[in-house]
Amino acid sequence: MRHISDLLRGGWLPYVDAPLWMNAYWTSLTFLDPLAVLLIFISPLWALVVAVLIMVSDVGINSYWAFQLNDIPFSQNIFLQAQTGFAIFVLLTAPFIWNRLHHQTFNIPNE
Question: What is the per-residue pLDDT across 5-16, written as a single tens digit (0 to 9) for each?
Fold first, then answer.
């Protein structure tokens, strides 16, 4: 919802203090996040892949923005701490979800 409200308030590419590539990435999340949710119902395996890619890239880009461009320490960035914690959860659970979905999708008996 944040990306939608940012677009409504600031127009297309609303993150003017960020480099263009970063602004474009954050703006694209307006569409990528709902795509991941939609894929849960269409293709859960692809939903998992998209979700992992979004989380890894988002934490990486947000970390770059915080540390390199704004010199904000991790200890003072509650948002990045929470996002990193969620990304760790996603990365730790993704292999189990992948295994379960892979077996269901291809009718492979669980061992």
Answer: 887 788 889 888
